[in-house]
């Protein structure tokens, strides 16, 4: 945001006025104990099955490999549309691909409610010049992306260049046009919960529609504790501004049990309003099959083997 101030020689110049990036200090012990305690909640059979189906509807199926091809992307889209032959299992929320494959995904998903997300801004490092990053975003949107997953400049964040981080997110949001923006913090590189909390605050103030833990390329990726820190930032942001921001933990979530744990954390922190694919997503390329196996166990009493499910 800029305003015009007069200078001594009568000329005007732009002065940037930034919002406050103040954020509370995170109690590390409390956060980790709280996140761990929520994993111990008992979930009854009917609620468990409903939770697993909800988790399927929140998944962003992802392929972000150098060997991606039109065939692989199309196959993943078909799995997102029809995760299982059972008619009571919903479609996934989205597929996430590189910009090159957005048109392929849009064609494969035409007429459905499954969104196409695309990583941009020099994913996963985020180290290209800003002009290149913004061109990347505009191109993905032009190809038909419904959602853009951007990565922040972690070097700038860690060196205290908060205004620069804010500006880049704000400009990316502008370049997104009608597409929703998910801001990837890459929490595994930020070093502390305090920095994660501040990065969450900056991302929301700059216009992000979602905040997301990780690219999936860095370990540790999503953890229950870091997700709780980000959810609490969303809660406090909502209380202070009235703006509703979504959340996406990504990377390292592989089992149905873990997925249910994350849903409990969301419910206990933000309430039922956030238990929808519009406001909560899982970024997990290997999670879906484990959830499908668990759903079959709930239905039949026995697990099916992994080879009963396609890998893509």
What value does the Rg take, in angstroms? Answer: 20 Å
The CATH first-level class comes to: Alpha Beta
- Arithmetic mean of pLDDT: 91
Apparent shape: globular
Instruction: Could you tell me the CATH topology label.
Output: TIM Barrel
Let me know the CATH homologous superfamily: Aldolase class I
Number of domain units: 1
Largest sheet: 8 strands, parallel
Counted beta strands: 10
Strand neighbour order, sheet with most strands: 9-8-7-6-5-4-3-10
Low-confidence stretches: 1-14
Structural class: alpha/beta
Quickly count the helices. 11
How much helical structure, as a percent, in the residues? 40-55%
Please state the second-level CATH architecture. Answer: Alpha-Beta Barrel
| Element-by-element helix/strand order | EEHHEHEHEHEHHEHEHEHEH
Q: How far apart, in Å, are the first and last alpha carbons?
A: 44 Å
What fraction of residues sit in β-strands? 5-15%
Description:
By secondary structure, the chain is of the alpha/beta class. The protein has one domain: Aldolase class I (TIM Barrel, Alpha-Beta Barrel). 44% of the residues lie in helices and 13% in strands. It contains 11 helices and 10 strands. The chain has an 8-stranded parallel sheet with strand order 9-8-7-6-5-4-3-10. The longest helix has 18 residues, at 224-241. The chain is globular.
């Amino acid at each position: 945001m800029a305003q015009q101030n007069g200078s001594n020689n009568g000329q005007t110049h732009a002065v940037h006025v930034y919002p406050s990036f103040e954020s509370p200090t995170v109690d590390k012990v409390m956060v980790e104990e709280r996140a761990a305690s929520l994993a111990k909640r008992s979930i009854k059979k009917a609620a468990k099955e409903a939770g697993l189906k909800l988790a399927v509807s929140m998944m962003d199926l992802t392929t972000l490999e150098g060997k991606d091809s039109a065939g692989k992307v199309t196959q993943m889209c078909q799995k997102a549309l029809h995760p299982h032959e059972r008619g009571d299992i919903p479609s996934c929320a989205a597929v996430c691909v590189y910009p090159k494959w957005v048109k392929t995904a849009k064609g494969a998903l035409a007429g459905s409610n499954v969104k196409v997300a695309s990583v941009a801004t020099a994913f996963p490092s985020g180290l290209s010049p800003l002009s290149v990053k913004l061109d990347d975003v505009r191109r993905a949107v032009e190809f038909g992306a419904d959602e853009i997953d951007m990565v922040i400049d972690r070097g700038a964040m860690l060196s205290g260049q908060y205004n620069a981080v804010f500006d880049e997110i704000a400009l990316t949001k502008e370049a997104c046009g009608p597409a929703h923006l998910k801001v990837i913090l890459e929490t595994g590189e930020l070093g502390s919960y305090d920095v994660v909390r501040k990065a969450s605050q900056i991302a929301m103030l700059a216009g992000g529609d979602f905040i997301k833990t990780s690219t999936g390329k860095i370990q540790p990726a999503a953890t229950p504790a870091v997700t709780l820190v980000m959810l609490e930032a969303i809660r406090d942001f909502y209380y202070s501004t009235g703006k509703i921001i979504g959340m996406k933990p990504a990377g390292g979530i592989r089992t149905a049990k873990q997925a249910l744990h994350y849903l409990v954390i969301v419910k206990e922190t933000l309430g039922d309003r956030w238990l929808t694919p519009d406001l909560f997503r899982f970024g997990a390329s290997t999670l879906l099959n484990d959830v499908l196996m668990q759903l079959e166990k709930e239905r039949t009493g026995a697990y099916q083997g992994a080879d009963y499910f396609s890998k893509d």
